[in-house]
Design a protein that fits this description.
The protein is built from 3 helices and 11 strands, in the order ββαββαββββββαβ. By secondary structure, it is an alpha+beta fold. Strands 7-10-9-8-11 form a 5-stranded antiparallel β-sheet. A two-stranded antiparallel sheet has the order 1-2. The chain starts with a strand and ends with a strand.
Length: 216
Amino acid sequence: MSLVTRNGTPVDAPVAPPKVLRQRRTRPGLLGLAVLLIALGGLGAAFAVTSVRATGSYLAVARPVEVGRQLSADDLVSVQVSGGAGLSPVAAGKLDEVVGKRAAVSLTPGTLLTMGQLTDAPLLGEGQQQIALGLKQSQVPARKLHPGDKVLLVSTPADNDDSQAPGTRFTGTVIDTATPENDDVVVYVALPVRDVPAVVVLAAQERIALVLVEAA
């Protein structure tokens, strides 16, 4: 019994029994599920860290490679790359498979090499023949011509020809260039077979002009 007051007068009153909190029952199934989720989360985090840290050896471009030029071992270098998700670089172990292939696009130093950047197709197509044109530096339409450049060969009038007729035009593709010691430029051009005889005659007469139409 406890003593309480009513209007300032103490009276006896029953003691209120203490409240008993019901204990929650633990469900073994939910506990097991929680443990499983925690374990799976840990495995996922470990896999992510391992994937990020995983490295591989791949081929990268060591120096500029022009369109159409064949790759050499000196053009490439082996690098270590982490991850690589979403990329398709060429593995360093495939060096022998890519040496000798031609660059389908210009290759920039410091970039990873992919098979899509290479081709086995020759620049000299079916029904074409290759000729060499010896030109002076001032007759070359660009500071440097590259394999795959599209060019136009135009005939120029002879010294005793006063006519204003337009020159004959021939379309071709640059295969390669060379600069001998005399500073002249030799341009190797692929032409349709039917145009080769006429262009050879004009070149021997020094009556051919070279025009760059489309750079590779």
